[in-house]
Design a protein that fits this description.
The protein is α/β, with parallel strands linked by helices. It has a single domain, classed as P-loop containing nucleotide triphosphate hydrolases (Rossmann fold). It is built from nine helices and eight strands. Strands 2-6-1-7-8 form a five-stranded parallel β-sheet, with helices on both faces. Helix 2 crosses helix 4 and helix 7 packs across helix 8. The structure holds 2'-deoxycytidine-5'-monophosphate. 2'-deoxycytidine-5'-monophosphate binds next to helix 2, helix 4 and helix 8.
């Protein structure tokens, strides 16, 4: 079974997807983490976010997803585990530009499909989250959820995450980062953020994580 969760930054996709994966013993694939690893590769190579740079840098970038025995997804860049290093405001500020590049998207989508089918075979279920997982990566998914939440609520959530990780950034900067990212994710030419016609919308503004997880789990069970 393949489940997709798409939506804007901070709408609660990854926390919900992880909760659902845990409850149902499914594998979780965070597609944003893969774009973030590519963005970190660009930063390390001092490359501009252009198609020319992508054609030059991508062939030598090795982005890999691994699932150690505890089931938590890990991302590797050139054999180095970078699951934490991709969560910096620096990566956050370049990733949405890099994820608009066609060669980057083509390579990531192909890899996400491969991982999705492989893990579904081994574990029976995969839950992906991102921006285009229900529209482009798995248009034939068994269940598609589109998550939304107010900008202010999403900024507060991201700000709390950054604070817990000890990162110094103001709430206003986070608000701006979210607005900029929404704008770019929604208006890009390739695979823009949009709700698939057959997706169920879940507004998480006033929902707890448990409620969000239960919402998705109930719908998965109804389809099983
Ligand atoms: O979900 P996130 O904040 O980790 O995503 C990082 C960036 O990657 C975000 O700017 C949008 C982009 N992204 C994308 O274009 N397509 C996806 N399927 C997932 C993320």
């Amino acid at each position: 079974m393949i489940i997709t969760i798409d939506g804007p930054a901070g709408s609660g996709k990854s926390t919900t997807a992880q909760g659902v994966a845990e409850r149902l013993q499914f594998v979780y694939l965070d597609t944003g983490a893969m774009y973030r690893a590519v963005a970190l590769g660009f930063l390390r190579a001092d490359a501009e976010p252009t198609t020319d740079a992508a054609d030059r840098v991508l062939p030598s970038l090795d982005v890999e997803v691994r699932y150690p025995s505890d089931g938590q997804m890990q991302v590797f860049l050139d054999e180095e585990e970078v699951s934490q290093k991709i969560r910096t405001p620096e990566v956050g500020s370049v990733v949405s530009q890099i994820s608009t590049l066609r060669p980057v998207r083509e390579r990531m989508v192909q890899e996400q499909r491969r991982i999705g089918f492989e893990q579904e075979q081994h574990h029976g279920g995969v839950i992906l989250d991102g921006r285009d997982t229900g529209t482009v990566v798995f248009p034939e998914a068994d269940l598609k959820v589109f998550m939304v939440a107010d900008v202010e609520e999403r900024a507060q959530r991201r700000y709390r995450e950054y604070s817990q990780e000890g990162k110094s950034i103001s709430l206003e900067e986070v608000r701006q980062e979210i607005r900029d990212r929404d704008e770019r994710d929604r208006n890009r030419d390739i695979a823009p953020l949009r709700r698939a016609d057959d997706a169920i919308t879940l507004d998480t503004t006033e929902k707890t994580i448990d409620e969000q997880v239960a919402f998705v789990v109930d719908r998965v069970k109804a389809r099983q």
